[in-house]
Amino acid sequence: LNYDPVGRDLRGTRFVPFKTPLDKSFFKGKCDLSSDEHFDVHRIVSFARQAGKTIGMVVDLTNTDRYYNKTEWSVYGIKYLKMNCPGHEVNEREDIVEDFVSAVDEFVNDSTNAEKLIGVHCTHGLNRTGYLICRYLIDRMGWTAARAISGITIVLVSLKTLMLCNNFRNVISPSSYNNNEG
């Protein structure tokens, strides 16, 4: 897939989606990238700082621990939350949605986190990430599905919008799905 590794923060929210960062050791003997081309935790934090932003929490939606060491986030004072989320199941698992919504609510309701962003990633930063962010926007922030999908699509290049649209048909009425206001 050809897309940026980090999306912009989603206007009107605290979310910033990104693809999974990889530990530098992941690349040893596998490719010719220089160390400054590796997409790792440090680069994500650097991207945020360059934009004048601070990430306060990262939600890892991958279903494995093999990509990087989660303690790397704590070096930067970032809270890390692991939610094992199997691919292609998130739209059928209300327990995952509820856990995500609860974790985000807890973070945003803590005044010490004011202005801090919430980084969210799955493997590619698209399907699970996009779905759960959209569900939060719809369920907690009152956005229409059309507005949520439009917003996340703008943030992530090459987002598989059709897949999100099909998944949302299970949680909203067709009339609100077609509503472009929001």
Automatic annotation (TrEMBL):
Domain Tyrosine specific protein phosphatases: 98-152
The keyword Hydrolase belongs to this UniProt entry's keyword annotation: yes
Family annotation (Pfam families): DSPc (PF00782)
Keyword list, A-Z: Hydrolase, Protein phosphatase
Keyword Hydrolase assigned: yes
One GO MF term attached to the UniProt entry: polynucleotide 5'-phosphatase activity
Record-linked SMART domains: DSPc (SM00195)
Protein name: TYR_PHOSPHATASE_2 domain-containing protein
Organism field: Angiostrongylus cantonensis
